[in-house]
Amino acid sequence: MKKVAVIDYGLGNITSIMNSLNYLQASSFLTKDYDEIMMADALILPGVGAFKVGMANLEKFGLVQVIKDFVQTGKPFLGICLGMQMLFDESYEFGVTKGLGLIQGQVKELPVNDNSKLPHISWNEISESDLCLWKNTILDTGYKKDVYFVHSFVGIPLNERAILATSRYGDTLFCAAVKFNNVYGTQFHPEKSGKYGLDILNRFINS
Amino acid sequence: MDKLKAYYGLPSEVKFCTRCVISNQRPSSTVEFKNKAGEKKQVIDFDENGVCSACRFHEKKEEGIDWQKREETLWRLCDKFRKNDGSYDVIVPGSGGKDSAYTSHVLKYKYGMNPLTVTWAPHMYTSIGWENFTNWMHEGGLDNILYTPNGKLHRHLTKLAFHNLLHPFQPFIIGQRIIGPAMAARYGVQLVMYGENQAEYGNKVDENNIPTMDTKFFSVDNNMEMNLGGLTIKEILESTDFKIGDFAPYMPMSNTELMAKGVEVHYLGYYLKWDPQECYYYAVENTGFKANTERTEGSYSKYSSIDDKIDPFHYFTTLIKFGIGRATYDAAQEVRNGKILREEAVALVRKFDQEFPKKYFREFLEYIDTTEDEFWTTINKHRSPHLWSKEAGDWKLRHIVTNL
Amino acid sequence: MNKLRLIARLDVKNEHVIKGIHLEGLRKVGDPVELAKKYYEDGVDEIVFMDAVASLYGRNNLFDIISRACEKVFIPITIGGGIRDLNDIELALKSGADKVAINTAAIRNNNLIKEASRIWGSQCIVGSIEAKFKAKGKWEAFVDNGREETGLDAVDWASKLVDLGVGELMVTSIDMEGTKKGFDIELLHKINNSVDVPVIAAGGYGRVNHIIDLYETSKISGVALASILHYSIDTCASIKHELNINDINVRVL
To answer: How far is B127 from chain C (nearest CA, A)?
Structure first.
């Protein structure tokens, strides 16, 4: 059974993540402890809320280093929603805030030109991009369904090869998932995306 | 300490039912036209376990009655009285509230009767009351006769009833009880069907072993000795300009006459298991009934008794005389019917029971031609010492229901 | 085109889902967790649990139900009814809710929304509005599950809520609620037009046509269904199928 650590830094719908991991029969635990995190087979950074607060909390609990160290080990890492956004260099929400810098690029407000509403709260389709195929990634489930988004900001990777999936909201195409080596990020919430989301999580746990 | 005086011969020790939240001060139904000031009231029974008779009756409703059999009896009753020649065969008194809406509609559309609904007009219709009343006919598909008694006398009687008995609703209750049989006699209809039985709420339980209403509630032998507003008709005639003819609406039929015409007054609640909340749903779905947009003052409900502007004062005077208000009545009924828990009822009573009905206060005062000072003087005269105490100029109830 | 969300609304009292009409009446219709699971499996997009009596009894009961529901239901869950302060919001989110819907408390204390969205982000905060028709083009906002007037204009209040920081609005028409006679299209159109956040329509759904008619006038983000599902009159799957045929994009399982 895979040991999955979920970072506890005060933000994010922890209960949902834990419930879905339990459902998938992973041995999961919530932690801020360096050793526990490093010993895990996979690491998840959840997140719901403001980038600034998220980063401040990570710093407060001394978690920035352990994330970077974990990523160095090559074991799978997944950032969800805000967790994905924090992987980037910086965000422009409420001024400029520095991120973890694990994925080159910035986080900016989702541009909507038509009458689309913000936050983007909806089920939406994700699409594969030619530069980063889904085969052998966590999105390689053999089928595709809608996933659940709730956000106003999006990550914009500098390197297009890091874009694992895109999605469209109104007229705008945006980055829905990223992958850079062993680091994954999903803007959507797999733990809230029904069976398809659970299958994606399952692939992550077993990668 | 001296034992505190208890008005109306009420039990001097105040107790609350251990199952619902009603208190042992709750008066049973009175024969209104014998009602005189200062008389001893019959109250609800409590047994040795502190459970009230309404709760006991409800137990019986749940387990001790074969409702299928009762419904079969209803079918036989309907078969007996049903007229297939197009004329009316049952009188259903009511105002288009949830209970009469249910009763009349189900008799017509399920039991194949041809009801004539009869309404003793509320003192002052609320707009939601009027809307529900007209929808009753237009959407519910029912015929109705609205009988409005001479307002001048009705107001005078209400005023008398308020000041002499602290019971402003009395003239209405009298009218409501006699209109059914009276219309039946007039239209050659023999069956009158009311909704629920008073025993549901705590009259003598034996009264609910029979389907019919005791004739004492709607007939008298000597009209002149009738009490209205605490005075006999004779006394009212002597002290005012009203003529005997003005009292026609309040003259119930004599027992002899009713028997001769074969009029029978039944309760539908004897034949069908009564649930006021289900009546609400039924009325919304079938007769265009709408709950009020706002909560009724003195309670939490939005659909119980919402058609008369005087109604809140009926409950407020009940609070003054017996220490229990509208929320208590509504909540007790919902506890028995399994909608809420006793704890919840306690919270509701404590939150809403003593709320003063200010929305129609001015109109009420005008209606009974009473000043605000006169209103409070009368109110305060009726606060029984065993229920009320005055602390720092404010009246406080000595006993309010609590959790067990 | 954005996908319309179908949301199951479960009004809960103690252990039961109840269903009223005009937000009145406590008729029991089922077990909250079982129904949530059923609707989830049938393809509903979100679940909203409303504590129907929290403001009457001054307490919260739903957190336990939410925790249990979250173990089996992997779609967004919103909880509302009796959310009074930051502590309640925290408890709600901790027990597994993704969003909290707030009505009475927001009206009584505007700061609550401001603070909450600052701490947890506006996407967690749903402004819940109960609106009653007053006069042509005018609706009043009510609180305490449709029991008490506020004197506030519902449409103005909607804008105010967005300024305070809600991420979404759920608008319930008290007049249409439980009647299965259709939505209050005018009300929803007015509000949807005046705010930039997603709006969920609640109250009145009876037939698929009702959604089609509403969507023709106003592209709301979601519709809440209650009576239809609880009384098993229709299922989410079949409603979505109908919507698809009528060119309204929805998520399919």
So the answer is: 13
